[in-house]
Amino acid sequence: ALWSWRQDHVVDCWQSAVCGAFAGGFAAAVTTPLDVAKTRIMLAKAGSSTASGNVLSTLHGVWRTQGLSGLFAGVFPRMAAISLGGFIFLGAYEQTRSLLLLELGRERP
């Protein structure tokens, strides 16, 4: 995790949650242009050139007409939603894992 590189360091569930939020937010930001292309392809009229499913040509079309802001349309709400999901899921995973290890009578690695 972020706080220690030692193998024997125990990571708290809130630390895992924060790492999940950062990882999810970063991944959401980086993949937003692909999500924009996917959405445009899905909403394109049947038979149009966009509906053919060519992601690169769709990205190029967005770049030509709307520029960088078009490629990253909706990036902040997408980052917020995916960060929240990463926070909840990774935090809940680590909490459940620690509770199960306690139930089994083992110490955390």
Shape estimate: elongated
For the terminal residues, how far apart are their CA atoms? 14 Å
- Helices and strands: which structural class? mainly alpha
Helix share, percent: over 70%
> Helix and strand string, N-terminal first?
HHH
Runs in which pLDDT lies below 50 for 5 or more consecutive residues are none
* Residues in β-strands, percent: under 5%
Would you report the number of β strands?
Answer: 0
**How would you state the average pLDDT, rounded?**
89
Counting H and I runs of at least 4 residues, what is the number of helices? 3
**What is the radius of gyration?**
20 Å
**Biggest sheet overview:** none
Keywords:
109 residues, mainly alpha
Note the topology.
Elements: H1 13-43, H2 55-71, H3 75-103
Helix pairs in contact: 1-2, 1-3
Solcar repeats: 11-99
Pfam families: Mito_carr
Transmembrane segments: 71-93
What would your notes on this structure say?
Among the domains are: 34-73, no CATH class; 74-109. It is 71% helix and 0% strand. The protein has helices spanning 13-43, 55-71, 75-103. The longest helix is centred in the N-terminal third of the chain and has 31 residues, at 13-43. The mean pLDDT is 89.
Please give a quick description of this structure.
It comes from Leptonychotes weddellii (Weddell seal). The protein has 109 residues and is mainly alpha-helical.
